[in-house]
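Example 3.
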Amino acid sequence: MDRVSTIKDVAKLANVSISTVSRVLNGTTPVSKESSDKVYKAVEVLDYKPNAMARSLISKKTMTIAVIIPNLSNLFFPELLRGISKAVEKEGYFLIICNTDYSSEKEEKYINQMLERRVDGFIIVSSSISNEKLTQMLKGKTSVVFVYSYADFGYNIMEDGIKATYDATKYLIHMGHKKIACIGWRFKGVNVRYMGFRKALEEFNVDFRNEYVIDCGYSKEEITNNTIKLLKMKDRPTGIVAFNDDTAIAIMMAAKDMGIKIPEDLSIIGYDNISISNILLKPLTTISVPIHKMGINAGKKIIQIIDNSISYSDTYREEYIPYELIERESVKSMDIDS
Amino acid sequence: MDRVSTIKDVAKLANVSISTVSRVLNGTTPVSKESSDKVYKAVEVLDYKPNAMARSLISKKTMTIAVIIPNLSNLFFPELLRGISKAVEKEGYFLIICNTDYSSEKEEKYINQMLERRVDGFIIVSSSISNEKLTQMLKGKTSVVFVYSYADFGYNIMEDGIKATYDATKYLIHMGHKKIACIGWRFKGVNVRYMGFRKALEEFNVDFRNEYVIDCGYSKEEITNNTIKLLKMKDRPTGIVAFNDDTAIAIMMAAKDMGIKIPEDLSIIGYDNISISNILLKPLTTISVPIHKMGINAGKKIIQIIDNSISYSDTYREEYIPYELIERESVKSMDIDS
DNA sequence: GTGAAAGCGCTAACAA
DNA sequence: TTGTTAGCGCTTTCAC
């Protein structure tokens, strides 16, 4: 690989001092036309590209934002990323992506590495780290916006509490379902989904059954296996509340393989409304959330925070994500034939 | 924001020299237990994180790889990214993502900015820059692997020439279709798809009709509008070869809205086999390509190139991607009722 | 308008 | 084993 040229090379070739080179490249101080011409010529000849790290070392700005995200398999995340990317690129920032695989160890490791890189800010999605830890690691040290993470500092973009899954569950109940399962997880951010589920059952006096709550992993295999187990029960549920569309889709596929028809034999409601959910084998009834817009908001917000360098106490705020229930074809009314 | 502490602060607090601090942190030279204890203590107290940029300035390694990619909307790209990310993260590298939106200006701009950042290597997907420009910008200056880009240097992961769409088109022909359209683009990398289409028509003596080739953009709107126009023709095609699944899906949706049934009224074959293509409203017959694996290969390869710092001449190679035609439900045989 | 020199935060000789 | 110093590539005083 060719040695890459430095400002020194340019200065030497142009026969000026390095400060002059710097000046013409940055336009900080007026420079004689003669010098500037020589510099430009030399830059051209040497194909000189200023070293961004050397610059950052001085400016203390890296123009990069770390995105800490569980994975890219669940289509929710690329869609969010798209929004973030859009908002951020127009301001000249770049994104560095860290996949945590929902592992808090990895998440912690990556956050520390990003801190070492002196990224200008963080967007942390579905964090699985405790608030204490998060606080200790980040609070007062950098700019951060959380998405679905429920930290007690920084800017938090979050769901309307437990209401959304409450509504989803209620919908199933109103459609006449009495045996309702849920599939999801119970940690931090998404735990509220579980709470909403419980609340609805309670409020409408529908039996809660422990064997109907599937606290599963994130891989398709785990979801599939758990679904099979659930659907093989002698007294299986007629409706399922999935805590995200990705899971709902995996369930659909598992059901299909088992010869269980949706919605005839099994109703299912999802969460997120990822963009493919309406073009599925069976279009999914789901809680719709403005994913792309959330991404844009997260991107815009982190830049605002960085630029104004608002301190923690000013920036703490919650931004609730609006949602709506979209009725499609994956839920059947039980009232007719029951 | 708190001032972040430097090695100097640690040295002062630990009452040792900065080189001692550096030594214990990097384990380069043996240090007395006493000193090292003091250093660790100070690091702890100050929550010291070594500045990665300062390090990189010296080591000339950034541990980051730039991924230049058209967008994240076409699900092919996140899937590829997932593979890249997986391969790269285990080696300690991070990815910085540049969305070009298929714009060669943006692509050029981003490549230059990444060059300034001294990324260790590039993975460039579906480049829309000319080979001359690419050569001038990158050749001999950094490590690069191209995916679907057909450069004449670097490591190229590419399709088996024009054969895949030739096969796709042939398939439609063998299913009895005589009026076949194609939808895609004719630039650089993906141009071969168009060539394959032409070749098959020619070889099997199927009429080529200029109004049946849709050289469209990438947005859903453009595809939709072009599809509508195509399907509104008095003499519309009975089969369509889409140059990627993303486009095929957009066509499906447009057709659905127009009341045109697939495959009864219109057959369609895609390209890529993105992971959702088998769970669609109408499972898509398509050319299947090992996207995730391609990503992994690209990631592994770029690291090999970086680590061995193989020079251009050694690294130029083509790696052809295997593909297979997957028959699902979006193509109908015309032989029965024609 | 321009150059010399200090310094960003770190590593790596080089002495001691 | 340890500290001093030079230097990575750049920006920015500070003189001239």
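DSSP finds 13 helices and twelve strands in chain A. The mean pLDDT of chain A is 93.
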